Amino acid sequence: MRKRALITGITGQDGSYLSELLLKKGYQVYGLQRHTSYPNTYRIDHLINNPKFPNFLTAYGDLSDSSSISAIIEKCEPDEIYNLGALSHVGVSFSMPEYTADITGLGALRILEAIRQLKAPIKYYQAGSSEMFGKVEKDSFQNENTPFNPQSPYGLAKVFAFHTTKIYRNSYGMFAANGILFNHESPRRGISFVTRKITLGLSRVKLGMQDTLMLGNLNSSRDWGYAKDYVEGIFKILQYKDAEDFVLATGETHSVREFAQIAAKQLGIDLQWKGTGIREKGINRKNGKTVIEIDPIHFRPSEVDYLLGDARKARKVLGWKPKTSFNELVEIMVKNDYDLVRKETRPGHKIEVRHRFY
Ligand code: NAP
Ligand code: GDD
User: Does 229 share its domain with 273?
Assistant: First the structure.
């Protein structure tokens, strides 16, 4: 009998890659899709109503709505639920703290409670985040034993979901596991996250469609991996014999400035940094033009300055390790966005990638 998986956040970056992985493994894949006034299914359009993927179906539901969650679980009878749905933008979570707590935090509880009430033997995956570690000591590694110290409504909501998952596991013997994933990116990354903003923005600069890219904190460091590698880890977490919690990370950290420098280099722009603080600028060494500037609007009320993961447990227990290097990741994203923006330069191919906030 075909295994059945239900994915929340099916229209997101990870939801789309995980769907492809599970379909390849022969799963029946169901997605809980929230209703929007205009479909935002571009990451999964190649799977929907495609005769090549008869085992892919989505249904409307919302993480704020217990009845829709229960109804979908009852209807799909999944063996596994991957809860990837969230308000996932840390900066935006400061503007919408209550909504973030509701969707990113309580959403997990609603699913776990639905599983408990149904008394169904469903395995549950919770999409935890390195943002839960929050403020950590510079040069330290974070692993499954590192205490949480969240710095944002998003981080706080994820800590709630993490502990709720553990409580349901310990109290009711449910198979409920947490992944604690460090940043992972791809050409499908939302355009308001810094990596994609950089690869799109610099591609536009290169092609003369934009003069300057406005960024926030250039000093912030992240452990950036490739989303396609990470969904394999997510899958392995639920296939392990016991429900446990696992960090997935690359073990390397790079600053936002470094990401921009490498992306620019791959586009043939040699960036030179001048000035300090909010007056720092990235200048094109060749023509003296300012390519990157700082706009404090992108600063957060409280920042996580530094993250670096220690994924030795996942490596040892699950046999998972990332396959894509930092440079390869930047290259994949730059190539994708350069090609995308190049299409904009042709008549009739205008795509809108501008955005003011974040
Ligand atoms: P993403 O691209 O932002 O996707 C989030 C998904 O959640 C989207 O499908 C979104 O739907 C859905 N969603 C939002 N509000 C919802 C609601 N009220 N009801 C149902 N669904 C809702 O995020 P991602 O990068 O794929 O990340 C997947 C998960 O992993 C998230 O929980 C994120 O917090 C977590 N995570 C991500 C990273 C990372 O670096 N990417 C690292 C650690 C943890 P729409 O498409 O309609 O907006
Ligand atoms: N978004 C954004 N936009 N971030 C900027 C900018 C900018 O213009 N300029 C600098 N940054 C800095 C942010 O302040 C942050 O320190 C860093 O770049 C990364 O920001 P994001 O790309 O927005 O990601 P994030 O680390 O805050 O959150 C992502 O990773 C988490 C895992 O640690 C999200 O995917 C979360 O959902 C995920 O849990």
Answer: no
Q: Is residue 319 part of a domain?
A: no
Mean of all residue pLDDT scores within the chain: 95
Instruction: Specify the long-range contacts of residues 67-76, CB closer than 8 Å, at least 24 apart.
Output: 68/32, 69/32, 69/110, 69/111, 69/114, 70/114, 70/117, 70/118, 72/6, 72/30, 72/32, 73/6, 73/111, 73/114, 73/115, 73/118, 73/120, 73/122, 74/118, 76/4, 76/6, 76/30
* 17-67 tens-digit pLDDT: 999 999 999 999 999 999 999 988 999 999 999 999 999 999 999 999 999
Q: Whose C-alpha lies nearest to ligand 2, atom 23? A: 193
The rounded Å distance from CA 161 to ligand 1 centre is 14
Pocket around ligand 2: residues whose beta carbon is below 6 Å from it? Answer: 88, 90-91, 129-131, 182-183, 192-194, 197, 215-217, 220, 222, 256, 298, 300, 303, 307, 358
Kindly state if the Cβ of 308 falls inside 6 Å of ligand 1: no
- Are residues 243 and 261 part of one domain? no
Ligand 2 closest atom vs CA 86: 37
> Is 230 domain-assigned?
yes
Question: 164 and 278: one domain?
Answer: no
- Which ligand does the CA of 220 lie closest to? 2
pLDDT tens, residue by residue, 198-254: 999 999 999 999 999 999 999 999 999 999 999 999 999 999 999 999 999 999 999
Q: Considering its fold, how many domains does the chain have in total?
A: 2
Q: Beta strand 290-294 with 281-284: parallel, antiparallel or unpaired?
A: antiparallel
Could you tell me if residue 61 is inside a domain? yes
What band does 354 get if pLDDT is binned at 50, 70 and 90?
Answer: very low
d(CA 3, CA 36): 29
For ligand 1, the distance from its centroid to the CA atom of residue 84, given in whole angstroms, is 6
Please give the distance, rounded to the nearest whole angstrom, from the Cα atom of residue 283 to the centre of ligand 1. Answer: 34
For residue 86, how far is its CA from the centre of ligand 2 (angstroms)? Answer: 15
Nearest CA to ligand 2 atom 24: 193
